[in-house]
Amino acid sequence: MNSCIYPGSFDPVTNGHLDIIERAASIFDNVVVAVLNNPNKKAFFSVEERIELLRKTTVDFPNIEIDCFSGLLIDFVKRKDINVIIKGLRAVSDFEYEFQMALMNKKLSPKVETMFMMTSSKYSYISSSIIKEVATLNGCINGLVPKVVEEALFNKIK
Ligand code: COA
């Protein structure tokens, strides 16, 4: 089976992430969306909440699996016995950091490939942080995140 891993914090998942997930699901037999559990980073949503939101927003895709990991991504990739990491690139500014991570992951496990997809231009300016900031200040995030995420954000802010 042709599988890939799409890792990230997903705090929370946005339409930009879903754009990458859905396109990856049309190429690979199985896409594992891997939520990073990073105890050192203060998250807005718990890992369980982030997983739940991802599950709800990908429910129509039978070949998408949601999982979580802590520690090194490459160790998780090896445990899953998958050889492809998918990452999204939104702008040139993403490139340097992604390039560094891809090369380090290659050094740690030469048989694992990182593949990049360009995020759709209509989502190229969004990030989870900017969505949280606008929502916290009661701005409109309609069309940038799924409805269920919008509701979860405004419920938490209340
Ligand atoms: N649409 C919208 N936003 C996107 C996006 C897209 N297609 N792609 C990325 N983003 C946003 C994310 O929401 C995130 O926003 P935020 O900083 O406001 O939360 C930001 O861009 C960075 O995304 P990403 O590069 O995916 O970083 P991440 O923090 O979500 O995840 C890991 C990074 C998990 C892949 C990486 O830190 C990792 O592998 N960690 C494990 C430890 C490890 O192995 N370290 C060594 C690496 S070589």
What can you see in these coordinates?
There is one protein chain. The protein has 158 residues and is an alpha/beta fold. The protein has a single domain, classed as Rossmann fold (3-Layer(aba) Sandwich). The protein is built from 6 helices and 5 strands, in the order βαβαβαβαβαα. The strands form 2 sheets. A 3-stranded parallel sheet has the order 1-2-3. A two-stranded parallel ribbon has the order 4-5. β2, α2 and β3 form a beta-alpha-beta unit. The relative contact order is 0.21. The model has no long low-confidence stretch (mean pLDDT 96). The site of coenzyme A has 22 residues, from β1, α1, α4 and α5.
CATH top level label: Alpha Beta
Distance between the termini: 44 Å
Number of discrete domains? 1
| Helix and strand composition category | alpha/beta
Please name the CATH architecture: 3-Layer(aba) Sandwich
Briefly, what is this?
The chain has 158 residues and is of the alpha/beta class. Helix content is 42%, strand content 20%.
Question: Which features would summarize this protein structure in a list?
Answer:
single chain; 158 residues; alpha/beta; Rossmann fold; three-stranded parallel sheet; two-stranded parallel ribbon; 6 helices; 5 strands; binds coenzyme A
Topology overview:
Blueprint: E1 3-8, H1 15-25, E2 30-36, H2 47-57, E3 64-69, H3 73-80, E4 84-89, H4 92-108, E5 113-118, H5 128-136, H6 147-157
Parallel strand pairs: 1-2, 2-3, 4-5
Residues 7-9, 11, 14, 16-17, 20, 36, 72-73, 88, 90, 101, 104-105, 119, 123, 126-129 line the site of coenzyme A.
